[in-house]
Amino acid sequence: MSRAVKFVQGNEACVEGALYAQLDFFAGYPITPSTEVAEHLAKRLPQKGGKFIQMEDEIASMCAIIGASLTGHKVMTATSGPGFSLMQEALGYAIMAEIPAVIVNVQRGGPSTGIPTHVSQGDVNQARWGTHGDHSIVALTASNHQDVFTMTVEAFNIAETYRTPVVLLFDEVVGHMRERLEIPEPGELHLVERLRTAVKQGVDYHPYLPREDGRLPMSDFGDVHRYNVTGLAHDMWGFPSDNPGVVHGLLRHLVDKIENNVNQMAHYKEFYTEDAETMLISYGSAARSALHVVEHLRGKGERVGLLELQTLWPFPKSVVRERCSQAKYTVVVEMNMGQICQAVQSAVDLPETVFLANRIDGAFITPTDIRKLLRVIQGRGV
Amino acid sequence: MKRCRMVFSGSGGQGVITAAIVLAEAAVLQENKIAVQTQAYGAAARGGATRSDVIISEEVINFPKVIQPNVLVCLTQEAYNKFYTIIRPGGLLITDSRYVTLHTKVDARQCELPLYRTVMDEIGKPIVFNICMLGAVIGLTGLVQADSIMRTLETRIPPDFLDMNRKALELGLALAKE
């Protein structure tokens, strides 16, 4: 049997990935440029016996998927900047209550309603720090449809493995562009199933007591175990606690389960990095322009390479540091004012060798934009 | 041609974006080529000059937009005025002779075709104007086979409309021959 081939938008590739990962509950409120995610799931999910709900807004959408996830479903919502802002409080709740969920943000220009139909990568730090309080977050991205599919599956796997919300940070160009997508055969990609407790009915179940490996088995809410779920700091029973030891242990657990597994979650691609004097770092649609430049300049014999990040958070610090250690210049290509550039600067040994090649006007960054900035950075003038 | 970059432009409702999607999908799914299609959203898609970019290639396509098209199609005066300067020197400019008056010579092969008039005379339904245009494009460039376009249309439109589309495609191919 050969793989099914489709010619689709990035948003549809995300839908295909989510269905492959066995998504069975979606709640959302359509917003450009993410609308096609909801549009296609509205059709596809009921056909597979799943549930699709269009909610009254993004706050309700996020809350609905949290509830559905607790009852045992694989859940997702999709939005863009303004909707992602509304989801932040409930996103924090999902972090605190340790609820697996996938949140797709197809980025557009901001702040506020911004430029709805144009591309941006301005929500990178919002994904990291949009909700209040000390916490860690997982955010993945992709530059082409095959990777959109794979990263969507990976988002569900990480969400289930670590009992945590995962953000998929796509952008308008990838979301709307059409290109080839091959759907992997069932079983070709590994799927992480919900880890359910072995504790029997009538026996005490501790929803927030990690096993030795750090994972927390779940019990479908409303099934055989009664337990409490709250956004307040809580003990192993899920009941509110202000005991400093309990609170400390909980916060450390929430952050450590992500930060201690940075390497397991670090997804990236490398192009000509071995001998690169100028190292480009990019992600999402901007990485397509960056790779175009790298291929072009390699053809002229210039030692340029590209590190394409697919995991943005937790930031793969050691990978970035190692790959940039031999480079004369590190140039971060992104469509914002330097959100990943800052992370790169704090990761490398010589932050003064890190430069930003960006565009913030809603227009897609072109290879010419990057080439001109590269020449300036290299001291060669435009 | 190793890589062909195209821009289809016109006004909202003429079907230039649909035509671009059909062409790119035919190249990928029927002929196993590599293709990427993008389009302008926003105000341009609601009136004004709409635009869709298609790249068909034998190699991986990284940068997905078109800056200098090898083939530029303009179905309205506004689209022509806005885009004619971006054509790649030595490229192919296709315009509809009812809607567009060329006001300068560009360094490209200029094909003024009576696409709209032919569709209205022979079929009488403007809805297949875009497919006639597509017929002219593949006739002039040989990018994909007419059969591939028809097989793609079969998956996208109701069977009752297929004959009309086939006729429009053939009219476009015939105009390209002339």
**In terms of quaternary structure, what is this?**
heterodimer
What would you call the shape of chain A? globular
Instruction: Classify the secondary structure makeup of chain A into a structural class.
Output: alpha/beta
What is the highest CATH level, the class of the largest domain in chain A? Alpha Beta
Spell out the helices and strands of chain A N to C: EHEHEHEHEEHEHEHEHHEEHEEHEHEH
Based on the coordinates given, report the CATH architecture of the largest domain in chain A. Answer: 3-Layer(aba) Sandwich
How many domains of chain B? The number is: 1
The CATH topology label of the largest domain in chain A is Rossmann fold
| SSE string of chain B, helices as H and strands as E | EHEEEHEEHHHH
For this structure, what is the CATH class of chain B? Answer: Alpha Beta
SSE map:
The complex is a heterodimer of chains A (382) and B (178).
Chain A lengths: L3 E6 H11 L4 E4 L6 H13 L3 E4 L3 H13 L4 E5 L1 H16 L4 E9 L5 E5 L4 H6 L8 E3 L4 H18 L2 E7 H5 L1 E6 L60 H16 L2 H4 L2 E4 L6 E5 L3 H14 L4 E6 L1 E3 L3 H8 L4 E6 L4 H9 L6 E5 L8 H11 L5
Parallel strand pairs in A: 2-3, 2-4, 4-5, 5-8, 7-8, 11-12, 11-14, 14-15
Antiparallel strand pairs in A: 1-9, 5-6, 7-13, 10-12
Helix pairs in contact in A: 1-2, 1-6, 3-4, 10-13, 11-12
Chain B lengths: L2 E9 L4 H15 L3 E6 L9 E9 L13 E4 L2 H7 L7 E6 L11 E6 L1 H8 L6 H13 L4 H9 L7 H16 L1
Parallel strand pairs in B: 1-4, 4-5, 5-6
Antiparallel strand pairs in B: 1-3, 2-3
Helix pairs in contact in B: 1-4, 1-5, 3-4, 4-6, 5-6
Question: What would your notes on this structure say?
Answer:
The complex is a heterodimer of chains A (382) and B (178). Chain A is built from 13 helices and 15 strands. Chain A is of the alpha/beta class and 382 residues long. Chain A has two domains: 4-183, 3-Layer(aba) Sandwich (Rossmann fold); 268-377, Rossmann fold (3-Layer(aba) Sandwich), CATH 3.40.50. The radius of gyration of chain A is 21 Å and the shape is globular. Chain B has a single domain (3-177), classed as Pyruvate-ferredoxin Oxidoreductase, domain 3 (3-Layer(aba) Sandwich). Chain B has a six-stranded mixed beta sheet with strand order 2-3-1-4-5-6, with helices on both faces. Chain B has helices at residues 16-30, 77-83, 115-122, 129-141, 146-154, 162-177, and strands at 3-11, 34-39, 49-57, 71-74, 91-96, 108-113. In chain B, helix 1 (16-30) crosses helix 4 (129-141), helix 1 packs across helix 5 and helix 5 runs antiparallel to helix 6. In chain B, strand 4 (71-74), helix 2 (77-83) and strand 5 (91-96) form a beta-alpha-beta unit. The two termini of chain B are 22 Å apart. Classes of the chains: A alpha/beta (382), B alpha/beta (178). At the A-B interface, strand 1, strand 6, helix 7, strand 9 and helix 10 of A face helix 1 and strand 2 of B.
